[in-house]
Amino acid sequence: MDATLPIIILALPLFMFLLLGLAGVKMSHKAAAWLGILGMGTTATLSYITAFTYFFSQNPEFVSATGERLQHVVFNLTWLAFTPDLVISLGFLLDPISALMLVVITTISFMVHLYSLGYMEGERGFQRYYAFLSLFSFSMLGLVVATNIFQMYIFWELVGASSYLLIGFFYTKHSAVSASKKAFIVTRFADLGFLIGILVLSYYSQTFDFIRLTTDSSWVLASTGGATFMGASVLTWALVLIFMGGMGKSAMLPLHIWLPDAMEGPTPVSALIHAATMVVAGVFLVARMFPVYILEGSATTIIVVVGALTAFYAAMVACTQIDIKRVLAFSTISQIAFMMVSLGVASSGNGEVCHHGLGYMASLFHMFTHAMFKALLFLGAGALIHAVHSNDYTAMGGLRKYMPITHWTFLIGCLAIAGIPPFSGFFSKDEILSAAYAWSPYVGIWMTVVAALTAFYMFRLYYLIFWWNNPDYGHHTPHDSPWCMNVPLVFLAAVSCVAGFIPFGHFVTWNRMPYDIHLDPVIAVSSVVIALLAIALATRMYARENSLPARFRAAMPRLWDWCYHRFYWDELYIFITHRIIFNGICRPIAWFDRHIIDGTMDSFATLANRASDEIKPLQSGQIQQYVWIYLMGALALGVITILCLI
Amino acid sequence: MEITALYYLLPALFMFCAGVYGFITRKNMIAMLISLELMLNGVDMNFVIFNRFLFPGSMEGMYFTLFAIGIAAAETAVAIAIIVNLFRSKGNVDVTGLNEMKF
Amino acid sequence: MESVGSIIMYAVVALTIVICSVLAVTTRKILRSATYLLFTLFATAAIYFMLDYEFLGGVQIAVYAGGIVVLFVFAILLTSRPGHDSEKLTSRSRRTGLVAAVATAIVCGWSLCSRSALMAGLPQMSNPDMKLIGARLLSSDAGGLLLPFEAVSVLLLACIIGAVVIGRRR
């Protein structure tokens, strides 16, 4: 395949970033925004062409004779050559998941660009906002097309940086600044594990290259030579550490704490970065390394356990939050955990895939559908916030009459995430549940419960926003947003309606061999019934203002408190960092630094000062004094000479 | 009584010590210069005396003194030029006021 | 054994040196100080004569007494105001000066006196011939002093120029 198109896909957002970042202040808001939208639109079109060519051209570069989709390196430039074996390259890898991600990222990014035109209207630093969006798009695209794990790491850090910039976009707001710092530090901490994992893995395998690592991967296990560290094989360590990077980016327990705070950023940013694209980077990472993960059952088990716990935890917390963006943030955490679990259950734990690797396909399918409907929900939430000027559902209610477009699209999003056919979430979630049941019935049941909770909290949110009571909005009646905000909503809603019917198994599977997916009727029916029951419960509780929610809350005050306070994870972190690390470690070190090290240096300086003060008067400028001292010295020398001669 | 070299050397030494005293105690720079001449003169005498008493056949000590006298004249001329110049700029010839070169 | 006349002569010259050098550094009036210096220089010239260096004595009188002291007098007249006494000495600087002078006298005097036994009377020497002195001064043979002579002449020239440059009114 010609390298022109992929290079443009990467270079255009970067160019837009530089253009808007450097020359943006000279432009009007409109010009900058349309430039950004145009750039992103072009990138999206080119990505569609690329993905379409890859999936449908039947070109022998992309599809082998047996129907297997091939991993195609469009270009790969050597960047740093440490040793002949250990070379870091920058390149463009085209394979099913990167093509899929190209489509997802550019679509959502384009929608967000368009949406922001209305949402961010009149904000200070409007051009800067578009520059950052372009930077993020560039980084994310670079991440998904990385040909080697180190390139991925570089772009991984870049998305972290652009996420930091966008969360802290309203930098005059204290909470936004601290949220951006929190996100950066937490993910950075996780990336430390990622980097160590990369180094360990490449130390043994002598390569960074994804294709080498993932083709007939058993040699990777052999290359470690059975080395172990603290009772686990080094490969497990490497994989778990790499997964730790994914945990940070994808907000898995216990590194999830940054994501709810990241909602301080502008809502379209939350839709793009903290719902649809960046946070699924962890899932993408594991998917990319999947053939290596299969080798170590313990690593995939850890993924399943972490994912399952996170999914449940986040769903519980989402049931009690007041801030609608926080609800969506926890819902995102929960859904990403679904994807993680799904990837984990795709491995049977003994070096084989489980259930034909169904979980792998399901995970990426869910990633695709989730990106669409979660972006839709976030953009809908943005429209609500824009109309009501508050993040809390307590300020909303009965909005279905005022904002019909938002209402209907939001409802579609809720139905999709709740897993109601024929909306897209049903199909992907169903695949995940069948994969989970095939791996272990307990995990399947657990995930079904989480799915029910998902349906419940989403409809709780929906009812509280659009039904419940009908507060007096005064003369400032909420109304639907301008067209540039409605177009993305309608488009994403439409995609959410039909995306489930995509024969996903034909495009993305763990071994890149297409196969037909089919619904397991038992699981499908049961999960739909459970979801409907959850929705019915939510309808009963929240459709009209009543005292039932308050009674529930009064019945389980302890549980409600724990959920509302997110099970006190933040407090735990603050306790650990402030009480233990700051007080126990940093303070003594700071004291040591200030008093011992600085003190030593200061005393040297003081000593030198004192000495010079003492010596200084000798240099008085009085020549007679000099002569006197000189004479005495000369006489002393004379005396010594005479005494020696005698 | 025989007048040995010691009898010539002791006045020379005394002159030198007087020069030392004057150089250290006087504040007037010209007076200091005078003290300096005294010291120089004492040293000159030493050359001559040792030449005369120990090596009466040769004349190196005398020549040395001869040159020293010439150089002393030159040095005095320059020193006095400097002192006069200082007097012009500072209005006095007090050496204690010249402490620009201190720390 | 010396003649009584030469002993008296010596005593007078030595006393002049001692007294005038002390007065030269202790007197309050700077012009007197220069005068005492002149007497000391004359006495030194007398010593040279006594030691049979007549040419050197002549040079001492001509250059030192005649040239340098005149320079001093001019300088004093240029830099002092009428009736301007020299400064009062603080006790500290007098003490340090005394300490320095006495210490020098003790060290040097002790080293001289400890060897006084080795010192003999004046050996016989004919008065150096003027022609011989001039020939040595301007000869480039072994023991000739042409080079230092020329060096000193260049130095004197440099000093003349330097003095003019330094002393010139800007």
Describe this structure in words.
- In chain A, 70% of the residues lie in helices and 3% in strands.
- Chain A has 25 helices and 4 strands.
- In chain A, the strands form 2 sheets. Chain A has a two-stranded antiparallel ribbon with strand order 1-2. In chain A, strands 3-4 form a two-stranded antiparallel ribbon.
- In chain A, a hairpin with a 2-residue loop joins strand 3 (228-229) and strand 4 (232-233).
- In chain A, helix 6 runs antiparallel to helix 9 and helix 16 (358-388) crosses helix 18.
- The longest helix of chain A has 47 residues, at 569-615.
- Chain B is mainly α and 103 residues long.
- Chain B is 76% helix and 0% strand.
- Chain B contains 3 helices and no strands.
- The N and C termini of chain B lie far apart (56 Å).
- Helices cover 72% and strands 0% of the residues of chain C.
- The N and C termini of chain C lie far apart (62 Å).
- Chain C has 3 domains: 1-85, NADH-ubiquinone/plastoquinone oxidoreductase chain 6, subunit NuoJ (Four Helix Bundle (Hemerythrin (Met), subunit A), Up-down Bundle); 92-118; 138-170.
- Chain C contains 6 helices and no strands.
- Chain C is globular.
- In chain C, helix 1 runs antiparallel to helix 2 and helix 2 (30-50) packs antiparallel against helix 3.
- Chains in contact: A-B, A-C, B-C.
- The A-C interface holds A 624, 628, 631-632, 635, 638-639, 642 and C 93, 96, 100, 103-104, 107-108, 111.
The total tally of domains of chain C equals 3
- State the major sheet of chain C: none
Beta-strand content of chain B: under 5%
| The top level CATH class name of chain B | Mainly Alpha
Query: Total domains of chain B, how many?
Result: 1
Quickly give the CATH architecture of chain B. Orthogonal Bundle
Note the main attributes of this structure:
heterotrimer, A: 646 residues, mainly alpha, two-stranded antiparallel sheet, 4 strands, 3% strand, C: 170 residues, Four Helix Bundle (Hemerythrin (Met), subunit A), 3 domains, 6 helices, 72% helix
